[in-house]
């Protein structure tokens, strides 16, 4: 939900080109708004959603077409519009994909249930709101999807695909729209949901009953990526002002703020961590076009990896780093010790969100199409499965 969602408002002519994207993607909310005006603020409390979505239904398996016939390890298939983050559910043997669907006169979204090996569609849940970020709970029974444009988060049952509960966050941004809920982190029966506002904040939600426990204020400009470190027992949150917030998950207080300290402008997006070495990885796909490596102990930058970088994941099973390059249309596989590129995969569309399977053997990628002038896309988005060599 790596994450990634919400975007900042920019002129229409700028929204149609460049690196505009959502979720781990970039931060420009207007790009994905189905309306030209302000979005309606949803300030409802958590509620049962039996009448708010169409329950998942079985569908005939769709054949997964090989994206690059020369690479037997890579499988790709077209799925639908508006694909963003993914969640893996081992108990259900399913890969779930969040979809916002179209942004041009299309209401609601979809959550796809895929076979994690073949990428065949096994089920579909139609939701009344658009879906972006995703995170699974520790029990494997639920996952959570952020409804970014409406400022909410939904709890979904893994087995049935039904939306069980939803919490809509109160408040509006400076333009009068709901404050976007971008990334969601599940930790210790709590959800940490980043608010893309200026100043930003993080909502702490009771994941069992979907009620708001606390709001962490003064989180900088636009909260983007959020992860938890088992090494330091801290939550790390990136923001658009080039900071990484160090948050105590027990007190819900910001204890310190890490920054590059080089006087340059950064718009941090997504985070990953190597707990064995205490390294934090953060991407900037907008201002600096770089991946920075922080030492968690000193808070200092110890490495710069130049190049466009959107999504990022660390794989402890293979000691590897994966980076999605939206602009270059590539996914990189790096040796985490030397930072050398071991392999790269090229695509015809834009790699967006990444997900590593629990066993560390497979990398999943969502692939985005370009937008037309009317905010429709040039075709359906895709999902790729890479059996890591």
List the keywords.
single chain, 389 residues, mainly beta, Methylamine Dehydrogenase, Chain H, five-stranded antiparallel sheet, 1% helix, globular, disordered N terminus
What does this structure look like?
This protein is mostly beta strands and 389 residues long. 1% of the residues lie in helices and 46% in strands. It has one helix at residues 12-15, and strands at 47-48, 53-57, 74-80, 83-89, 94-99, 109-114, 121-127, 134-136, 142-147, 152-157, 163-168, 180-187, 190-196, 201-206, 211-216, 223-229, 234-239, 244-248, 253-258, 271-274, 279-284, 290-295, 301-306, 312-315, 320-325, 330-335, 341-346, 350-356, 362-368, 381-387. Strand 10 (152-157) and strand 11 form a beta hairpin. The chain starts with 11 loop residues before the first helix and ends with a strand.
Present the secondary structure layout.
Layout: H1 12-15, E1 47-48, E2 53-57, E3 74-80, E4 83-89, E5 94-99, E6 109-114, E7 121-127, E8 134-136, E9 142-147, E10 152-157, E11 163-168, E12 180-187, E13 190-196, E14 201-206, E15 211-216, E16 223-229, E17 234-239, E18 244-248, E19 253-258, E20 271-274, E21 279-284, E22 290-295, E23 301-306, E24 312-315, E25 320-325, E26 330-335, E27 341-346, E28 350-356, E29 362-368, E30 381-387
Antiparallel strand pairs: 1-11, 2-7, 3-30, 4-5, 5-6, 6-7, 8-9, 9-10, 10-11, 12-13, 13-14, 14-15, 16-17, 17-18, 18-19, 20-21, 21-22, 22-23, 24-25, 25-26, 26-27, 28-29, 29-30
């Amino acid at each position: 939900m790596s994450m990634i969602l919400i975007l900042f408002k920019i002129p229409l002519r700028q929204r149609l080109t460049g690196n505009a994207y959502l979720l781990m993607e970039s931060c420009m909310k207007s790009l994905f708004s189905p309306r030209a005006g302000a979005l309606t603020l949803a300030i409802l409390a958590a509620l049962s959603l039996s009448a708010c979505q169409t329950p998942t239904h079985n569908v005939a398996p769709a054949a997964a077409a090989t994206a690059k016939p020369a690479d037997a390890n890579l499988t790709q298939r077209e799925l639908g519009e508006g694909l963003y983050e993914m969640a893996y559910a081992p108990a259900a043997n399913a890969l779930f994909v969040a979809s916002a669907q179209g942004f041009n006169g299309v209401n609601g979204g979809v959550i796809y249930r895929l076979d994690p090996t073949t990428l065949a569609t096994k089920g579909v849940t139609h939701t009344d709101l658009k879906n972006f970020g995703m995170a699974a709970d520790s029990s494997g029974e639920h996952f959570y999807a952020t409804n970014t444009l409406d400022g909410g988060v939904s709890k979904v049952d893994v087995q049935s695909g039904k939306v069980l509960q939803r919490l809509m966050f109160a408040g509006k941004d400076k333009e009068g729209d709901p404050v976007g809920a971008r990334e969601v982190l599940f930790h210790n029966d709590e959800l940490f949901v980043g608010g893309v506002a200026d100043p930003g904040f993080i909502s702490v939600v009771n994941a069992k009953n979907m009620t708001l426990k606390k709001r962490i204020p003064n989180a900088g400009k636009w909260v983007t990526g959020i992860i938890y470190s088992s090494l330091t027992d801290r939550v790390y949150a990136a923001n658009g002002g080039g900071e990484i917030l160090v948050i105590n998950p027990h007190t819900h207080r910001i204890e310190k703020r890490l920054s590059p300290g080089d006087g340059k402008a950064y718009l941090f997006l997504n985070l990953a961590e190597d707990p064995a070495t205490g390294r934090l990885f953060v991407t900037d796909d907008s201002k600096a076009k770089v991946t920075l490596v922080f030492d968690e102990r000193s808070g200092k930058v110890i490495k710069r990896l130049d190049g466009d970088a959107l999504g990022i994941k660390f794989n402890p099973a293979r000691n590897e780093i994966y980076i999605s390059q939206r602009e270059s249309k590539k996914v990189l596989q790096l040796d985490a010790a030397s930072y050398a590129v071991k392999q790269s995969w090229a695509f015809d569309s834009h790699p967006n969100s990444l997900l590593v399977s629990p066993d560390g053997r497979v990398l999943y990628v969502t692939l985005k199409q370009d937008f037309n002038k009317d905010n429709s896309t040039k075709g359906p988005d895709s999902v790729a499965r890479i059996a890591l060599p």
